[in-house]
What we know:
This protein has helices at 36-105, 113-118, 133-146, 180-189. By secondary structure, it is mostly helical.
Amino acid sequence: MADDPQNTPGNGPEDKPEGEPGTAPGSEPTGEAGKGAKGDQADAVKTAETARAAAEKRASEAETEASRLRRSNAATRGTDLDAMREEIRAEFTQQLVRAELRAAAAGKLRDPADALALLDVSALSGSGGDIDAAAVAAAVDQLVKDKPYLAADSSAPAPAWGDVGAGQRESADEPEPATPLDRLRRAYSA
């Protein structure tokens, strides 16, 4: 059977090179980086392990930083809330004082906004955020004494609105104006 093509060298099972089953001849694993199948797998595993260790380290550091920040915020939160409450309370008190000042100046000054512009609003609030109504009235009275030209003129009558052509007329003999412009002329000429 020497002429049998099945028995030629390299075709039989006895001529198969030694190594792992299923590996091709010439691709023998060496275990070195970049050479052979086992070396590539080892490099990939090593890279994955390194990346995982780095990610775990970053996660641990982030958790530590987050817990530190939580403790820091918890320590300062109480004083920040108290400061914010005090600021809101002071602002609300200032609004109340301004409203009280406008009410007190309404009958005494021509323009109550003058009292807001010329008086120190912060000096009129009492201790603890209370409004001192007597101090507000005294401040408006002192403003009227210091600047009498701001005082309301109580002897002058209220300004008249005038006739704008509405309502019943004195004489029914007058004809109705032809245009709205004539109506306005008649109203302002009276």
